[in-house]
Design goal:
It is built from six helices and 19 strands. By secondary structure, it is α/β, with parallel strands linked by helices. The strands form five sheets. Strands 1, 2, 5, 6, 7, 8 and 19 form a seven-stranded mixed beta sheet that branches. Strands 10-17-11-12-13 form a five-stranded parallel beta sheet, covered by helices on one side. Helix 5 links the parallel strand 12 and strand 13. It binds flavin-adenine dinucleotide (FAD). Homodimer.
């Protein structure tokens, strides 16, 4: 069995692996796709000390750093179930899709999350070419340009407020008849001169010139009419879904599926820790996921030295 088994090979899992391996304890890491979400990212400019890099390159750097140490890397392995130990210090079991079960004295679960997509024509084609999901990451790339934010919940309205300070103009598009964000955010949004809010609108297509986004079309749901908006960027803010479906019977999740953790990264089950976008920690960013991966690793090490193997 492993001392520490990490599930997830994104920034959180990779950071955890480097930290535990450097303690000289037996570390394994199973990931469906090593690198995680950064594989789908182009420019990364906010990982402190790395002024500018690209997603696939960052992912390769993560993997190279982990491979510097004695870590059992199991790439292209999907975890499908978790059976926590019934006794403190006992072995937890992770079931993989290929039928194999892995056992470990501690677990660090870092399966990340995925942005909910609009699933309209043009969205995939123009991803990273105008279609974006993370205002903190990509907002500055649209300085002085026109953008839309899709979604009028808290994250959509926060994104619109944030972007309004950077870009020339923001169009906020909400499917429902009203925005769902907190009243204080809605008041702030309404006070901004360069924001237009369109409700009862279904985005139907992302338009582009073959290279990058040039606009979008939406359907006015009250009148069943189609409209076009010219712009350079579209921020999709209709939900971030944690990859935690396989954990719901094993550890405590919030109603949104986020793993509940304490300030040390421990879940509701002793000896099982979690980090990154799959958890309740606010602000889903690489630097935060990596920091929390390190934190979970140190907590797992602390657990191991306090519990005799059983
Ligand atoms: P992830 O990166 O999601 O990694 C999760 C890992 O778990 C993957 O290896 C995955 O394959 C694996 N996994 C999932 N389920 C299972 C399972 N059942 N079994 C086994 N393995 C599993 N952040 C920034 O700070 N700066 C940016 O510029 C930036 N740009 C972004 C651009 C895009 C398009 C996107 C989508 C995100 C961007 N982010 C950016 C956010 C950033 O990528 C995430 O915050 C970060 O990757 C989270 O790290 P993580 O390790 O928690 O999860």
């Amino acid at each position: 069995p492993f001392d520490v088994l990490i599930v997830g090979g994104g920034p959180a899992g990779a950071a955890a692996a480097v930290y535990t391996a450097r303690k000289g304890i037996r570390t394994g890491i199973a990931a469906e796709r090593f690198g995680g979400q950064v594989m789908d990212t182009m420019g990364i400019e906010n990982f402190i000390s790395v002024q500018s890099t690209e997603g696939p390159r960052f992912a390769a750097d993560l993997e190279r750093h982990v491979r510097d140490y004695e870590v059992d890397i199991m790439n292209l392995q999907r975890a499908e179930g978790l059976i926590p130990s019934r006794v403190p210090g006992g072995l937890h079991e992770v079931k993989l899709a290929n039928g194999v079960s892995l056992k470990s004295r501690t677990l660090i679960v870092a399966p990340g999350a995925r942005w909910r997509q609009m699933n309209v024509p043009g969205e995939d084609q123009y991803k990273n070419k105008g279609v974006a999901y993370c205002p903190h990451c990509d907002g500055p790339l649209f300085k002085g340009k026109r953008v839309a934010v899709i979604g009028g919940g808290n994250s959509g309205v926060e994104a619109a407020i944030d972007l309004a300070g950077i870009v020339a103009h923001v169009t906020l598009i909400e499917f429902d008849t009203d925005l769902r964000a907190d009243a204080v955010l809605q008041r702030k949004l309404a006070s901004l001169p360069n924001v237009k809010i369109i409700t009862s609108a279904l985005t139907t297509e992302v338009l582009g010139d073959g290279e990058k986004v040039s606009g979008l079309t939406y359907k006015d749901r009250n009148h069943d009419t189609l409209h076009e908006v010219e712009l350079e960027g579209i921020f999709v803010q209709i939900g971030l879904v944690p990859n935690t479906e396989w954990l719901k019977d094993a550890i405590a999740l919030t109603p949104r599926g986020e793993i509940e953790i304490d300030h040390r990264g421990e879940t509701s089950q002793p000896g099982i820790f979690a980090a990154g976008d799959a958890t309740t920690v606010p602000y889903k960013q690489i630097v935060i996921a990596a920091g929390d991966g390190a934190k979970a690793a140190l907590s797992a090490f602390d657990y191991l030295i306090r519990h005799e193997p059983v």
